[in-house]
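Run folding on both entries below.
>entry_1
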Amino acid sequence: MARHTLLIDADDTLWENNIFFEQTIETFIDLLEPLGYTRDYIRYILNETERRNIRQHGYGVRSFRRSLEDTYLKLAANATRREMVQRIEQMAADLEGTPPHILDGVPETLAYLADRHRLILLTKGEPAEQAAKVERSGLQTYFDAIEIVV
């Protein structure tokens, strides 16, 4: 059998990722609702802010934190509170420290594939953050190479 090279993504392919961002967004919206905006409007402003920040700062928790803070500062205007900024910083720190939750069957599938093919992990995001997730996942041993693009 010919040995092929397979490129495999990390976030939401090998482990859960987006679900934790979504949970953080829901908590963020809960915190901002008392400002008088609808949940949909808060999410709209956050999405627009994220689009802008991703172009400038890339993907990752740090860019996401910036988007949460920018959205809060925009919507709170003159009613900003330092405690809220600190809460947003803590939410981002918690998100960054969340250990990877490996999806069912991933280790077995990678072991099967690694015996037959050259595996390369190709993931996108802030290099240090992605490298830390790969390290914490324990899955790096299945890969011949790990490439992180910004």
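>entry_2
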Amino acid sequence: MSQYPAKVSTLLGETIPWTLTLVGTATVIAFFAGTGLGIVAGWRHGGWLDRVLPGLMFFQAIPYFFLALILIELLAARTWHIFPIGQGYAGGLIPGWNSAFIGSAIYHSILPAFTIVITTMAGWMLQMRNVMITTVGEDYVVAAQAKGLHSRRVVFTYAARNAILPQLQGFGLALGFVVSGAIIMEIVFSYPGIGLLLLNAVTAKDYPLMQAIFLVITFAVLVANLIVDFIVVAVDPRARTREAA
């Protein structure tokens, strides 16, 4: 082992919380923001959000590391010294449940989290928009509008509730891969997550540590998909009907 006598479980326990907090929070924010904007864009097809979407898709086409380097250059290194360049917290602090450490950890995570959100939000928005456009034309949505129901109720109760089902499947996969983290992003920001740990293990040819990391990632993907399947069954009455049959 490259970090002997440290145990594999100890190393994973030290890095997984960092990745879960950063990448998990950023993924959830990107999902809800992108899904919400996608609902509005699909319902009001041809509006201003449709015109903004190509610009947002440009950010999605940019690799994590490239956008991260640009943001570091602009907001941390030379132009504006607003955020720290890297690390998970300020030097000299001892990790613990105190305001100084928590505040420093949040401050150091803003820039990498923003990188993840801005490069993934457009994908959720585009997918939700496309499904919403199809769902809005369904008979049950048209019938709800013909009954004179409030547009907000039609959007969220009839259209968005059914359109979001494919979105949940993709969200399950995204949550599963949260554990693996954004490896390149963690390297660029020197963030102490599992992605950086995996890089160090590969560099040092630490096979036991690599095996443990891959096992945790695989287990996380399976558990996330299982949870999403339960959510889909709870949300979609058609899934419950198929199960009963």
